[in-house]
Amino acid sequence: MAYSYLFFEPARLPLTPDELDDNTVRPLDDADAVRTALSRMLPAIAWDDDDQTGRMQADEGWIEFQLPASEDTLSMRCSLRADYSALVQSLCDQSGWLAFDERPMCFQPGQAPMPA
What we know:
By secondary structure, the protein is of the alpha+beta class. The protein is 19% helix and 34% strand. The chain is built from two helices and nine strands. It has helices at 31-41, 85-95; strands at residues 2-10, 25-27, 46-47, 53-58, 61-66, 75-79, 98-101, 105-107, 114-115. Strands 1, 2, 3, 4, 5, 6, 7, 8 and 9 form a nine-stranded antiparallel beta sheet that branches. The longest helix has 11 residues, at 31-41.
């Protein structure tokens, strides 16, 4: 079993829950730029031969990133063995991205997660 997060590019920051829509939250659609950013932030990522899926082991379990294809955005799946919200918050802080989890909660740079 896995837990999932989706990452997006904000039009501006910070955002409030009532501002989360297609005008302020855009897909991360440049796979090359996303791969470069992830490799910089998480050097332990090993990319598959197709360069679309990156995997790594963390102390708590496994993490898998799927780069965006057409009309998609970056996704992260992780094992249910641990809470990865601190890692997700760190990725948002370093990249300027937004992330949403399954609850749904919104993570954004420099802010506490908020209900989406």
